[in-house]
């Protein structure tokens, strides 16, 4: 049956695109719904893919001189020893400087209170006001202690789920590193022959982007942490090593992670060495962030992850609204993978001209059309 000629062409076109858009939205909503139902499995698999992408070069290096299975175990052991050594160093640093920092932090709080009470600010906050806020906070805690305890008991299950997710991630990582190519080939062989090439191209593009993002993020985070640690150590800021680790962790959370780490480092510097050092720390870590964005990101990531900053900001915001910190972490690599697959599979038309007519040119063309 043909089209009804009484329906305008623009309406038929709009209707066609509308139902296609609705189908895409429904498919995306279905994916999010299914992911929410098995969130623990999604987290575990995502973490396994990240670890696999980071450790795959190490595994390939070991596999040159030993069987693949043994190389996988040695790569995981190397990663475990690295993080264990890092954690031991941080704990020893905190234990050695904690008492000193506590006293300096108390002095810093007194300086802040004195500035708020006697400084040039139009609002005056006295020590009695702070004591009143603390008393109100203690009263609120005593009134809601039962609710907090019940929430803490409920969170015990979340802790167990966290350990389960880590165990599943390690289990999957072992197989991804040892037999990843065989698993992918098996999956492709389950598809119709006419679809295998498209899936192979899409999977290759997606893995290239995801692994590049994961490895690049780890390299950039390590560089940020090392630079921040050296910078804080030169300034003599206490707990330089733990703060450097905090900067390292913050680099994994796009947009919001680095500023939070900078604020915490500045607060510690303020408590220990005063306002001038805190200001220097803030400026220094901000410069490290600029070095990361303008030098490290293009150099390390290259063409593997090419997303506009606006897309990154929107992705992180949407991910945070949907799944909190987890959504902020996974949103950028998922969007990058989706865009990479789309660019590999699409049939791109020739680009249009960059010249955009001005309002004067549009008005002149419209006037000429009426005259004709």
Automatic annotation (TrEMBL):
* Transmembrane regions listed in the UniProt entry: 17-34, 40-58, 70-91, 159-178, 226-253, 260-289, 309-342
Q: Which domain of life is it from?
A: Bacteria
Q: Which Pfam families would you find in this protein's record? A: AI-2E_transport (PF01594)
Question: Where, per UniProt, does this protein localize?
Answer: Cell membrane
Share an example GO biological-process annotation for this protein. Answer: transmembrane transport
Where do the coiled-coil regions begin and end?
Answer: none
Q: How is this protein annotated for GO cellular component?
A: plasma membrane
Q: How does it sit in the membrane?
A: Multi-pass membrane protein
- Name the keywords, alphabetized: Cell membrane, Membrane, Transmembrane, Transmembrane helix, Transport
Q: Which PANTHER family does this chain map to?
A: PERMEASE PERM-RELATED, TRANSMEMBRANE PROTEIN
Give the family, as the similarity comment puts it.
Answer: Belongs to the autoinducer-2 exporter (AI-2E) (TC 2.A.86) family.
- Its name, as the record gives it, is AI-2E family transporter
